[in-house]
Structures are given as C-alpha cells and as structure tokens.
Design brief:
alpha+beta, 6 helices
C-alpha cells in the first residue's frame, strides 16, 4: 500500500467568494481562464450568479444558486458571474493544481505569444498592499474579459480559429511546467487510486489488516482571503 492520507481522491479544496467588481460589459465576477490537465467543480454554498463557459461546442451559461453542483473538464474556458453574494466550495483535480499553475487566462493574443509578457500580466505584486493586490487582480481580470469577449464573438460567428489558436498558445505557455505537475499527480490522485486497488486486492484475499492503519486528518485554511483568479480564496493545504 502507498499509504495515501490526503483529501479523498487527491482533490484540492478552496472556499471562494467571487469578485463583485463590474467589468466592461457590466457583469460582476471573476477572470476567464481554462485548465489544461484538471477538471474542476463548483458546489455553491450561497448567493447567486452563473458560470459562462466556452468550448469548441460553443458558448453556454449555467445558472448558479445555493446547492448547485457544476463541473467541467480540461479545455473549458470558464468565467464566474456574481449576481449577489456568490460563494462556492471549489473542488480541484490533482491536489489543487488549477490554482497552482494549471491555468491560462484568456488574455489578448499578443500577451499569450510572449511568455515573459504573459507572466508579468498575470502575476500579482509580491509583498503588495491590499489595495495594490486588488488593483492588479482587477487589471488582469479586465484583460482576460476582453480576450474572452473576442473569443466568444468569433465562436458565435462560426469562426473556430481564434479558440484553436488560444488552445495552442495555452499549451505552449504551460509545456515547461508539466514535469512538476506529473509529480503532484503521482503523489496525489495516482497514489489514492493505487491504494484503492491494493485494498480491493487484499479484501478479495480475505485480508482486512490494513483497516487497523486508519487515520483521521483535519486542516484549517493555510491562507485566508487570498486574491485568486475568480475571487477571494480560503485555501487548504494540498497534502
């Protein structure tokens, strides 16, 4: 047995209070982006709003209200819209990798084509004040909303080219990071799956000895109110 003791299934969990900043289109909410290797889920705990998504199948808007559970697979561009007090428990594949690197914002193409320019546009100032961090988070959100609007307009017009170009640019940006992501997957979801396989094998052989190794874990958030892509985050440890 591998002895995996992390959050079930190797997922990551955050508590999210979605931004209520208005964007150029009058909607309040977060930063449009996609993940390349991780599915993500939303369990709505309060308020109301929607998640706008864009895939090769087109644009879609899914309402969000307390109790709703929505999830989507890698490659789904998603934008949270806050119609009032929207709070969400975010479930993330691969021990929270979506908030730890596996995300590309829908910035305008010139920024996507230059890795240094992209990083400068999306990175919040280290050691910044609350006001400086909020301003930087809002600026990058507005850039991504503009890029998202252009992608949506092209898709609505029946032109798949800009979305395909965004996919290629996103893959190029994160390609050098995948070695570290593989380690996170191996120590999380892969380890949890291997434990289940071993437990099934042992039960089939009449061996329940591993039950004596049971443990209980409890965690408090490691970070409170961090400025994330979609809102303020209470972030739990990944282990």
């Amino acid at each position: 047995m591998t002895g995996y003791e992390g959050v079930p299934g190797g997922v990551g969990v955050s508590l999210l209070r979605v931004y209520d900043w208005p964007a150029a289109d009058g909607l309040r909410g977060g930063t449009p982006h996609l993940h390349l290797t991780c599915s993500e889920g939303y369990l709505v705990t309060g308020g109301r709003g929607a998640v706008q998504t864009l895939t090769a199948s087109g644009f879609r808007q899914t309402p969000l209200a307390e109790g709703a559970l929505v999830w989507f697979t890698p490659g789904t561009i998603h934008r949270l819209v806050n119609d009032g007090g929207l709070t969400i428990v975010v479930l993330m594949q691969n021990r929270g990798l979506p908030e730890a690197g596996d995300a590309v914002l829908t910035l305008p193409p010139p920024l996507l084509a230059d890795p240094a320019a992209y990083r400068a546009a999306v990175t919040l100032p280290a050691g910044g004040t609350e006001e400086e961090l909020a301003h930087a988070a809002r600026v990058r959100r507005d850039l991504a909303v503009a890029g998202f609007a252009a992608l949506r307009a092209a898709a609505d017009a029946g032109d798949p080219g800009p979305l395909a170009a965004f996919h290629r640019a996103a893959a190029a940006l994160v390609g050098p990071l995948t070695g570290g992501w593989r380690e996170r997957w191996r120590d999380g979801a892969a380890a949890a799956s291997a434990d289940t396989r071993d437990q099934l094998d042992r039960l089939a052989d009449g061996d329940c000895g591993y039950l004596a190794q049971a443990v209980v874990r409890a965690e408090q958030p490691a970070h409170l109110g961090r400025f994330g892509m979609c809102g303020r985050l209470d972030v739990y440890p990944a282990a």
